[in-house]
């Protein structure tokens, strides 16, 4: 995936990464949460391509950089980043992705390309579900929507078959 692509649209990747890291640093300082070098590096790894990565893929990168080779190193860092709202877990892929809306209160919805694996996060896709819950008197506490299909690039390449 090109480094200037976020989800299915172009963006300023350098600015995106730096603002996400600054936001994480600020959030951790304000909430007295430790943003350790390993936690920061894991977030950077996930921000590099905006692609979903498995914990063992993250661990392999950490190991190659001398930051740890045991699974708990990656899982603890990923757990912290999820807890702080900087990263989401994609259940369908058993993988993690950097949040594209850090600091915003939202229930993410993910569009997953079945051909290339590209993942895009939508912030407001749960509106219909929220309305249905409200009408039925159901109190939504958490939702995650994961939809599978084809991204624009794979559609153009004829990956539909």
Could you give the topology of this structure?
Blueprint: E1 5-6, E2 9-10, H1 13-30, H2 37-49, H3 55-64, H4 71-84, E3 87-90, E4 95-98, E5 109-113, E6 119-122, H5 127-136, E7 145-149, H6 152-156
Parallel strand pairs: 5-7
Antiparallel strand pairs: 1-2, 3-4, 5-6
Can you walk me through this structure?
With 161 residues, the chain is of the alpha+beta class. The protein folds into 2 domains: 5-98, Arc Repressor Mutant, subunit A (Orthogonal Bundle), CATH 1.10.10; 109-156, Dna Ligase, domain 1, CATH 3.30.1490.190. It has 6 helices and 7 strands. The strands form 3 sheets. A 3-stranded mixed beta sheet has the order 6-5-7, with no helix packed on it. A two-stranded antiparallel ribbon has the order 1-2. The chain has a two-stranded antiparallel sheet with strand order 3-4. A hairpin with a 2-residue loop joins strand 1 (5-6) and strand 2 (9-10). Helix 2 crosses helix 4 and helix 3 packs across helix 4. The protein is globular, with a radius of gyration of 17 Å. Mean pLDDT is 86; it is low at 1-5.
